[in-house]
Amino acid sequence: MFGSQLATARVTALLLMLWTMGPIIALARVVEVKAPVPGGPSASELIQAGISEVRSIRQATPNETVTLRLSSGVYRLQMPIIIEPRDSGRPNAPFVIEGAADGSTRIYGSLEAEARPAGPADLAGLAAPPQPVQVVDLSAARGTQPLGLVARGAYNGTPTSQFEIFQGDNRFRPSVWPRSGYAEGVEARADPNSLGVRVKLPRAMFERFRSQKDLQVAGYWVADWAYEAQSMLSVDPESGELLVSRLVAPLPTRRVIRARVFNAMSELDAPGRYVLDPAGRRAFVVPVPGAAAKFDVAVARELMVLATVQNVTLRNIGFERTLGTPIRIENASNVVIENCLVRNSGNRGITATGGRNVVIRRSVVADTAETGILISGGDRKNLTPARHAVTDSIFVRFSQDSPTYRPAVDVQGVGNSVTGSLFRDGPHSAILVNGNEHRVSGNEISDVVKETNDAGAIYMGRDFTARGNVFNGNYLHDIGGGQRGGHRSLIGIYLDDQFSGATITGNVFHRVNVPVQIGGGRENLVEGNAFLASQRSAVLFDDRGLHKHRAMTLTGELNTKLNAMPFRQPLWASRYPTLATLPENQIGAPIDNVVKRNVLLGRTMIEYEFQSSRPFLSATDTIDVTMPAGIGPDAGTADLLKALAAANPAVAALGLAVADRAGALHDLTFAPVAANQQGPK
Q: Sorted alphabetically, which SMART domains does this protein's record hold (predicted)?
């Protein structure tokens, strides 16, 4: 024992209740762990001792529900807590790890670090910062571990960060030029010696950056949907160009890009920003006024790992301040994460891969460098569902460091669901879907796809075999307004690159640039939706599989994915009969799509991307409406929909409702975290 804290853990293992469920008598005990105190056992030692006590109880009485209760306070970990198969509960007697009901139990993957004003000696040989800064010594927290800005972007995987620093609840970001947005019209070209890519900035900025080290250059090098950040290698004084590391994106570099530069001392001018000096094992920071005086430096990659376990519940805990993904779940079954907070991570927030019945509910995921949650499970070849679920949760400020294809929720596999949740404040997609028979319903999505073009709030694409996905009762609003100029395609639900067999029903779209895009797919149903005050037409439609994507269709990626699935075998043929005959039935033609009985306020129902697309789709039974008297253009969606239903029986008959998840989820324990803007402003 490590003293009174661990003794308390044993003594307070109390019998709480007894109940009968059929032939099973389930007992419940609580093993309480007190938060660590200076000079006492570490958080890891305390929690591991508690788990050992739980194991002893379960070995003696395996039918008991045992709760490991972490009392209010901060638990700092440098290595994750591993929940092993032997810790599994039973269906009627789970193993529960819970914090205080008020949300005051927090697990951090960080150590405290002191900051002091940077003096002339600290700044010797460096560009002068535009304002006084502080310096944080990283040698104690990070030791000899790799330290630097990692490459990020759509084609760079999801890397674990090498450096994360926090002040209070604020996740700091590297200094950036320009201070907001991107520099437009930046010239880029492939290096003639194949060393990388050359970037030509305005001469004044080149002169400012040419002597600085450890810079990172980021931008939309190949497309407006493919961000990438790579290290600057050198400068060319004669041409005035920066040489940047080779891009991972497998597409040609555009001649003119949007770009920005990170980690320049000359740009360290805003609270919540830092400049990392890897060689000096230090960081220069501009503190956030009013925040805690001390800083936290992330040291742990993960905080909780649940591998091949069953019947485990995590509740009432905040998981924060990591280099990597705080919670990793692998090949686990009947795992519940409820009323938890996951934020301030250098990678994803949660991953749940393999297994079945992993449920994440009434939780908040915020301020993640990459994807918020990845849920992947089920067997596609056998069409076996995993039934993983994300429900009644809040997602904000996701994909902060990789702003394309790092959604709030990435859904893969077979038979998973995302329901009743709130998504807002993201640069690209809120939800990505890949696989079969997923359900996305009753969600509210707004203020996303803010930084990109040719992108969808809910996105899926380029797989003939990913059939049976349902999108019902979602509320998408205020998407695509105030974007950069030009002909923008910011989509609500985007069926890209011949995605087929989707059902889009009962959704409400209000002030969305383009509510739905059918990008050459077939057998998609768009019925009973409300398209209100769209900036373009309600449905954007094309036949790309017959021309610009013909090679991809016949011999390329679409053909490869088709033949990777047993689409002609009895199971698949019975589930998706038209897929079994796809190669012989006008492959590439966008046939058998249906757009009917939708409400249309403003604009037109269908916009054809190409003239050749027109013969393949017509809208039927459209309910055309006008703005009701007394309702202004800035009216709330619920009021507008109510007025439309009152004035038009056909609208009323659809029974449409606004999924106001912001209102419904305001009472979550961690909801205030989602409402508060963190980090650099």
A: PbH1
